[in-house]
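Inverse folding, one chain.
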């Protein structure tokens, strides 16, 4: 039996992700007619292909559909040049759409009336205005999941900052590990931690 979404009761396979075309998947420098679509934006084209390869449903979500069905053939031709099969093209948002990649979107935290940036800043201010800061230190064997856990925790708990020796190594000398430079890395991590204390 198909797994159902706990809020809507719909089959999870009906979920889809929308990708805007102009300015998101393709360069956009002003309207030049229904047949003109700008050069591809490689990072977004790769993201679409990755999601399709992973079995996700992707649709092109574009204002070009205000021109009617004649907008679809040029879009399909452009997608084919990028190695993407003919995706559904729409300008209708429904309850099955779970994500939208769009250069004009401003994401709001549900139920708050705040943008993600405003909410994040507010949470940081709350934590900074308290009597104490909370520091969580993880230790464990290499590749035991410390970084993965910390990233997920910081994403879920707004206002936490992840100080990561691996990221510092890449920033300092562009590779994951070099024993000769470890004192520099650990000094930088210690300095960042001290600055937040």
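Residues assigned per position:
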């Amino acid at each position: 039996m198909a797994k159902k979404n706990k809020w809507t009761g719909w089959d999870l396979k009906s979920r889809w992700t929308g990708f805007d075309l102009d300015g998101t998947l393709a360069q956009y420098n002003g309207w030049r007619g229904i047949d003109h679509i700008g050069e591809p934006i490689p990072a977004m084209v790769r993201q679409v292909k990755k999601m399709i390869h992973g079995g996700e449903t992707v649709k092109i979500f574009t204002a070009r559909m205000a021109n009617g069905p004649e907008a679809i053939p040029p879009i399909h031709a452009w997608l084919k040049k990028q190695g993407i099969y003919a995706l559904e093209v729409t300008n209708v948002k429904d309850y099955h759409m779970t994500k939208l990649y769009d250069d004009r979107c401003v994401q709001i935290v549900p139920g708050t009336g705040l943008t993600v940036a405003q909410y994040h800043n507010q949470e940081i201010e709350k934590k900074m205005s308290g009597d104490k800061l909370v520091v969580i230190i993880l230790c464990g064997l290499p590749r035991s999941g410390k970084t993965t856990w910390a990233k997920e925790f910081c994403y879920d708990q707004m206002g936490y900052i992840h100080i990561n020796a691996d990221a510092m190594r890449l920033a300092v000398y562009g590779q994951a590990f070099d024993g000769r430079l470890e004192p520099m890395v650990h000094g930088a991590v210690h300095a960042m931690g001290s600055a937040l204390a």
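The first helix runs from residue 42 to 53. The helical segments are 42-53, 72-81, 116-129, 146-156, 165-173, 182-196.
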